[in-house]
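Project standup — Tuesday

K.O.: blocked on the structure for the chain from last sprint. Re-posting the sequence here as requested.
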Amino acid sequence: MRVIESLLIDGQWSAGGHERQAEVFNPATGQLIARLGLASTADLDRALAAAQRGFQTWRKTSAYERSKILRRAADLVRERSEEIAALITLEQGKPLAEARLEAFGAGDHIDWYAEEGRRAYGRVIPPRARGVRQTVLREPIGPVAAFSPWNFPVSQLVRKIAGALAAGCSIIAKGPEETPSSCIELCRAFQDAGVPAGVLNLVFGVPAEVSDYLIRSEVIRKVSFTGSVPVGRSLGALAGQYLKRCTLELGGHAPFIVCDDVDVEAVAALGAGLKFRNGGQICASPTRFYVQDGVYEQFVAAFCRAGAALKMGDGQDPSSQLGPLANPRRVAAIQDYVDDALAVGAQLALGGQRGAGDGFFYPATVLTEVPERARVMSEEPFGPIASIVRFSSLEEVIAKANGLPFGLAAFAFTRSIQRATLLADELESGMVSINHFGLAAPETPFGGVKDSGYGSEGGSEGLDAYFSTKFVSQVG
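H.V.: unblocked you, prediction finished:
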């Protein structure tokens, strides 16, 4: 069994010195395909020292030169996107068509930050006295510790790396142990593009050990985390003890509101595509479908047809549209949500039983008439379950949509400008998409409110997170 050479520290790749190794599985077959070397404390110390040295080099590199290197990295990622996509599918399970979009799209994220980093302007403040110059400078905050998840191993990691590097920061990225290989190839592209040794470091390890050690280090000045609410709370609290800035992109439970004036067939098809993409293992995935009384039955029928038409299978099969879930824990969790909902009165309209075979498959599942007390209505399912319930008035559905502590994404569909404006104004969410899917482009901010975290990745806001503000007042 091969051991993946997984650590990039100070420009060198190694297997890691931890006594433990992680196991990497193919979720379509359940087979063990590799073992992953993990970082020891000594490895983390080397990474911290490298990041400190790398920062001193990179912060003095002009924004113009940094941009050229990032643009080369973007080109390399695109050139290697087929190889990277195959690794995503092998270890994470999503259909190859989705993995290709993720891998190729990573280049767009790098290009965006490469250009935005060249335009990170300060400003001049008019003084109150002649001879005084007052300027505001934006300086890189320092070495960054970044933690990314397994559901989008490339597109989540690339935002953190590209944002930090564009601002002039160095970074230690901890990738997901379940899906390491595509992360490794992403970092290799940055390295081959000319990012100096120590500026970009990649580690894998025991998650709690790595996060605790890095965040407590005086070297780290900024933390970026994408993952669950409980872990985000813990890391945010730890960073707060050391007064370190955080970007936290945590869980979601997105409402999908369908008014009675829409093209029902079209909205149902779009909703099913969004819901079952990546097996529903998406933090911004729609999970609570609120459909107005007049179109409820028509929407349920159309949505179920769209879900039933999806071919479930190994993501490496080009015809597969719904791949396996990431691990057996997700399969068990989804079944628990379905069983609980049925026990309290929900109706099963589609799916509801795990797939046969050795892989971690679960079919597209639709629950209707779901009571609010069902766990799936208040806990993020993170899987291929759509819960569909009725509503009568906009006031009622807005209250239900805002009734949870989550606030990452929300979707709404209506032909009425008045309704659309009301929904845009009243939905408590960091991202609201009306009448289409408009989230996650490189130039747009991605982030939530309430328990879904704070700060944004993407857009100019994503770059701002890696800068400190320095005010200079000068005479003479």
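K.O.: great, moving the ticket to review. The longest helix spans residues 96-117. The mean pLDDT is 97.
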